[in-house]
Design goal:
single chain; 156 residues; alpha/beta; Rossmann fold; 5-stranded parallel sheet; two-stranded antiparallel ribbon; 6 helices; 15% strand; disordered C terminus
Length: 156
């Protein structure tokens, strides 16, 4: 089985998206400040985000209750590498990006083709990787949907 991020072919760039639909992102990061910074950035973009999770076990539990549009994963979590979590995400067709301070060479061969962003990086690099991984997010962002609160803070 390929563990490369994939999503059901329900959206493509240019597709129309219901304006009431809001994408969601599961953040799995064991460093609290990084998780909170990712949460704030994604919320400012209008993406729904739950509390960042610090372990694969907590993320697997969340997946039993909620299916996110996309996920951001640190490779090494409080309970070790996130391989079981990656497999579950792949089984359910949930796209993801690994956002790690580790070089991709530390990962097993089966993870060589997954989207991997090395920390730190510019926010735009991370957003571009998320959009490439998740067609639904790409379709949503191409429609220009932004949380109105963000427009009030930054009227650009």
């Amino acid at each position: 089985m390929s563990l490369a991020s994939r999503e059901p072919d329900t959206f493509s760039v240019g597709d129309s998206v219901d304006s009431s639909w809001r994408p969601s992102c599961m953040i799995v990061e064991d460093q609290a400040l990084i998780g909170l910074a990712l949460e704030a950035y994604l919320e400012d973009l209008g993406i729904a985000v739950g509390e960042p999770l610090s372990s694969a076990a907590a993320a697997l539990d969340r997946l039993d209750k909620h299916t996110p549009t996309v996920a951001i994963l640190d490779y090494t979590l409080k309970d070790g590498p996130c391989i079981t979590l990656i497999r579950r995400l792949a089984e359910h067709g949930i796209p993801f990006v690994i956002y790690s301070g580790h070089d991709p060479s530390v990962a097993p061969r089966e993870l060589r083709n997954v989207p991997w962003i090395t920390k730190p990086c510019d926010r735009e690099v991370l957003l571009a990787a998320l959009i490439r991984a998740a067609p639904a997010l790409a379709a949503w962002s191409s429609q220009g949907f932004v949380d109105p609160a963000v427009k009030e803070r930054d009227p650009r």
